[in-house]
Amino acid sequence: MKIGFIGLGQMGSAMAANLIKAGHEVTVFNRSAQKARALVEQGARAAANIAEACHGQAVITMLADDNAVADSVWAHDGVIANLPKGSIHVSMSTISPALSTRLSSAHAQSAQRYLAAPVFGRPEMAAAAKLFIVTAGDPATAEICKPLFEAMGQRTIAIGTDPAAANLVKLSGNFLIASAIEALGEAIALVGKGGVDKRAYVELLTSTIFPAPSYKIYGGLIAEGKFEPAAFAAPLGHKDIRLTMAAAETLQVPMPIASLLHDRFLRLFAQGGERLDWAAIGGLANQDAGGQITA
Amino acid sequence: MKIGFIGLGQMGSAMAANLIKAGHEVTVFNRSAQKARALVEQGARAAANIAEACHGQAVITMLADDNAVADSVWAHDGVIANLPKGSIHVSMSTISPALSTRLSSAHAQSAQRYLAAPVFGRPEMAAAAKLFIVTAGDPATAEICKPLFEAMGQRTIAIGTDPAAANLVKLSGNFLIASAIEALGEAIALVGKGGVDKRAYVELLTSTIFPAPSYKIYGGLIAEGKFEPAAFAAPLGHKDIRLTMAAAETLQVPMPIASLLHDRFLRLFAQGGERLDWAAIGGLANQDAGGQITA
Amino acid sequence: MKIGFIGLGQMGSAMAANLIKAGHEVTVFNRSAQKARALVEQGARAAANIAEACHGQAVITMLADDNAVADSVWAHDGVIANLPKGSIHVSMSTISPALSTRLSSAHAQSAQRYLAAPVFGRPEMAAAAKLFIVTAGDPATAEICKPLFEAMGQRTIAIGTDPAAANLVKLSGNFLIASAIEALGEAIALVGKGGVDKRAYVELLTSTIFPAPSYKIYGGLIAEGKFEPAAFAAPLGHKDIRLTMAAAETLQVPMPIASLLHDRFLRLFAQGGERLDWAAIGGLANQDAGGQITA
Amino acid sequence: MKIGFIGLGQMGSAMAANLIKAGHEVTVFNRSAQKARALVEQGARAAANIAEACHGQAVITMLADDNAVADSVWAHDGVIANLPKGSIHVSMSTISPALSTRLSSAHAQSAQRYLAAPVFGRPEMAAAAKLFIVTAGDPATAEICKPLFEAMGQRTIAIGTDPAAANLVKLSGNFLIASAIEALGEAIALVGKGGVDKRAYVELLTSTIFPAPSYKIYGGLIAEGKFEPAAFAAPLGHKDIRLTMAAAETLQVPMPIASLLHDRFLRLFAQGGERLDWAAIGGLANQDAGGQITA
Q1: Residue D187 has what pLDDT?
Q2: How far apart are CA C166 and CA C168, in angstroms?
């Protein structure tokens, strides 16, 4: 397929590379142009602006937050203004369900198509084409994008026809991961202070009752007390918890663990922890117990 | 091996049955004698009292709580008074680390051996000999018990020589499961109120980022809103959270999610929910959101 | 003084009436004009629009929230466009510190003056000219407004020269009141379920260790379980907690009780409690204990 | 009246001194005898053991916790064994409602009388005979003790005939004070980081919406960041929160602020804060915000 790809961060670069590898004709765009270079070497075309990335059957956005996506879409030379009628905007960023709904309406009004397709997975999973992709929107549109998703992920799961649903599911998933980080942080602080070897404990947990990647990755980081370099920086994690809480407020759903996580992030930042991986909130329980966040 | 088995609840009965099946010579005891009948049919000998269950190389206790274990051990005709010198008390109940330490000392003083070997797994896992067994204590003693553990579990993991460590690990594991229940409850309340199908959501989660039995079992129960019959009753779950909090208090480790869980259980009980599975605390978020605990 | 008064809700109407009573020349404006009638009978002049309320030495705004204030100030025919140079905008609404800072800059650029002067007190205190007024800004400006504050309040306290400080103090005060409501709710649920008469309990508390109006008023409402009619509606209370949390997020100050209050309000609203007094969050602990929010 | 007084800590010594001053014939006892000396100089008789303090119309216990009271009462030479028939045990310590109920039964079985009469007030209030005394039990018994209470307190309030009620009320009162400490801690951390002078802030609050001694005393300590010397040490405060939580568990009343306070105390102790005043938990919010507990 002939497609555009906007947003070449750690995740986006890896995803675009896999699209190229799979034979798609990819035009990439990033605000700071040097990030496009490596991809051009792999076969991408570099767009000078957003408009140039909108000439194909689909354009994928993989950007940092709601503002970045809204800017790219509604700017004078943005996606709405340039995407051909009938072409598809595949929104893969972690954004608010509310923005997803607005995007869906706006594209419909411009006779364009919109598909929400946020992803689960850290940069190394993106690089290995092992992402999980959650889609919501028109099934026919999702069908067209199938080869793209197969190039980037290990599995694609449709969760309904309301695009906002996919974004809500994505946020709730990150909430669940952050909850597991906090719970692991408390458990590891407890057994550690009780004299149990932290690494052996995580190995025990993840080879028995919690054989899930999240528990392995984050349990390991917490047991090591090693939160740098960040694969997913704490401010991004905080952003997702805030979006979760905003959605929960709109829907009137109290979420006490989300509230706890929000306070954990603020505390981490008040100590200068913005550069750490979001797993670092799992070190605060150890600090509460009289120890350190990092080993 | 010639062994005794004290405590024939849902878990204990299944475990004893597997020991018999593996060829061990098992003398069973339970306070209400009729529970022994089915096992006698399978080949067990029924003891008239605790003393009669203490004549072998090892005696296993699998009882409801600290009090039940302490009663069995220190009663006039209890384990301490009757277990032969050199024989092993294998304590598999979920008890406090503090009691485990006291048991270890008491048996040492009586020239008996003690091994802490709590288990992870619900009744159906016990029946299938799929338990995870966490041991702590003297390695030689653990080695002797190996055939017993192989008959009951899918995996045995040693976590050190201090028996209390195994009990602390067991409690922390139940804390982690309860934390996952609460987090799932909040997430499912959120996406459900947002229009997402709850069962499809749990299927999505557990086939992607959380491929762990706890998430499948408890996510499923919460999505269904079905908490009866109880495989692990809420008061037992609450007991474990209280033991976790007691250990955390002794070690001076604040655990905010444990505190939240404690309040969740009290709220469930104040509504008459004692008979429900502990997964029912995962229905309280839905009640907070204006819905019901049960479907 | 010749002044304007914008915003004639329960609070504003009472405040404006006291200004008239004290002999000030007051021009009043409210979006729905009928609220001005009673004040006109008491001697006010009714403005047809915001501009007409801006012709004096000062204009007071007493509006529902940030949006209402921003609209009044920056509208085409708003305060900024019409207030004479040197005249004062006295902002008495409960707004965010961030908006107060923006207002201060905007007025300075228009050669107007700005004073933040939020108030503590419920409608009956406003009617009795018993408000507490917290001011922040230029001391000379505050001095000019002194006769106005004396007509409306029992005490005026300056808290510095940065206008945002007064708004932060006001929000923090409402946070403290809401915290007292929640704590009273928990305590009253406890002693009530323990067989103590709830009204006698509140009488005991407020005649001994907590002789403060907040404890009397809110303790009384919770003991009675009577939250209608609302003197300060729950959505307004929630708004203030959200503004507090927003300020806390900007300043990176984790506030766990604020988080708890936020979740309490969401839960109240999910049950249809928007019409109740904000004291109704103090009834949720009783609901948690198996009882009802309202008696 | 001829009375005994058992327990001469900071509070008990001051209370006993006021009883002597009021003309009562007081026999004092304390485990470490030197504490009795100052009171003997003021006119007390020193008892060599508990039995000698039990020969009057009433004996008052003012001890540290449940264990100390139970030991004094049920010891071989304790209160139950020595108090004359018809004489009164006035229990003024902060103890659990459950122990109060047990004491009431035990004294009734021994044909003695029992009155629960816990107090509110810090040592300086005890010295000034300004305590608030909450009584529960037989009204005729309370009437007999009236002159004693008048010598020690500024006000005596009866809260029913079930002795446990007074103890529950006392615990709930300390819970409310601790809640105010936590809320003040969060509010002061917020406004302080926002640039407001902390002392001026507390002065503002306590001269307007919170004119209550608790807010003045604890707000002042938190604003100063000065928690030594302790008038009421943190471990005693923690004990009261634990007793509150135990009563709440028995009554099935979830108390989320109590849970938060429990975790706050554990965190304070994990940092070595046992010697500080319980107001120090109000410094943890400042630590969360990147500052220090103490100034």
Answers
A1: 98
A2: 5
Q: Per-residue b/e over D161-193, b at no fewer than 16 CB within 10 Å? A: ebbbbbbbbbbbbbbbbbbbbbbbbbbbbbbbb
Q: Tell me: do B65 and B12 sit in the same domain.
A: yes
- Residue D136 inside a domain? The answer is yes
Which of these three, B99, B127, B161, is where a domain ends?
B161
Tokens of D151: 């010598």
Domain of A99, in residue numbers: 2-161
A 10 A CB-CB count for A286 gives 25
Query: In the structure encoding, which two tokens stand for residue C270, read together?
Result: 């999910």
| Interface contact A254, partner C, CB < 8 A | yes
**A98-112 per-position pLDDT tens digit:** 999 999 999 999 999
- Tell me, yes or no, whether D78 lies in a domain: yes
Helix (H, G, I), strand (E, B) or coil at B274: helix
What CATH number has the domain bearing residue A137? 3.40.50.720
Q: Where is the domain boundary, D161, D190, D216? A: D161
| B295 pLDDT more than 90 | no
**Would you place residue A295 in the very low, low, confident or very high pLDDT band (cuts 50, 70, 90)?**
confident
- Using CB atoms, which residue from B248, B255, B266 is nearest to D249? B266
Looking at residue D203, its pLDDT comes to 95
| D250 and D155 together in one domain | no
Least Cα distance to C284 among B46, C275, C270 occurs for C270
Phi–psi pair at C4, nearest 5 degrees = -110, 155
Residue B293 lies in a domain: no
Return all residues near C149 (Cβ < 8 A) that are at least 6 apart. Answer: C117, C133, C135, C156
Task: Mark whether B238 and B268 lie in a shared domain.
Answer: yes
In this structure, what DSSP letter does residue B279 have? Answer: G
Instruction: Give all strands (DSSP E) within A172-292, no chain letters.
Output: none
Distance from CA of B108 to the nearest CA of D (A): 30
Give the Cβ contact number of residue A121 at 10 Å: 23
Return the structure tokens found at A145.
């994008």
ipTM entry: 0.95
> How, if at all, do strands C45-46 and C25-29 pair?
parallel
Output the pTM of the full model: 0.96
- Secondary structure element (H or E) that encloses residue A60, with its range: strand A58-61
Determine the distance in angstroms separating the CA of B21 from the nearest CA of chain D, rounded to an integer: 43
* Interface contact flag, D253 B269, Cβ < 8 Å: no
Q: Tell me the nearest-neighbour CA distance from C227 into chain D, angstroms.
A: 21
The CATH number given to whatever domain includes residue A224 is 1.10.1040.10
Q: Is D259 on the interface with A (CB under 8 A)?
A: no
Q: Do D260 and C258 touch (CB under 8 A)?
A: no
Assign residue A186 a region (left: φ > 0; alpha: ψ between -120 and 50; beta: otherwise). Answer: alpha
Is residue B14 domain-shared with residue B107, that is, in the same domain? yes
Domain count, chain A: 2
From B136's Cα to the closest Cα of chain C, the distance in A is: 38
Marked catalytic residue, from A21, A35, A130, A170:
A170
Question: Which chain C residue has its CA at the smallest distance from B285's CA?
Answer: C267
Q: Please confirm, yes or no, whether C170 is among the known catalytic residues.
A: yes
> In this complex, is the C-beta atom of B197 within 8 Å of any C-beta atom belonging to chain A?
yes
Q: What pLDDT sits at residue B9?
A: 94
β-pairing, B131-137 with B113-116? antiparallel
Three-state DSSP class for residue B43: coil
CB half-sphere exposure, A167, CA atoms < 13 A: 29
CA B7 to chain centroid, in Å, comes to 12
Query: Is the minimum CB–CB distance between C259 and chain D shorter than 8 Å?
Result: no
Q: State which residue of chain C sits closest to A262, comparing Cα positions.
A: C254
Please check whether residue D294 lies inside any domain of the structure: no
B264 touches chain D (CB under 8 A): yes
Based on the domain organization, do C279 and C181 belong to the same domain?
yes
Which of C82, C86, C102, C68 is CA-nearest to residue C27?
A: C82
Contacts of C248 in chain D (CB under 8 A): 190
Cis, bond preceding D123 (omega within 30 deg of 0)? no
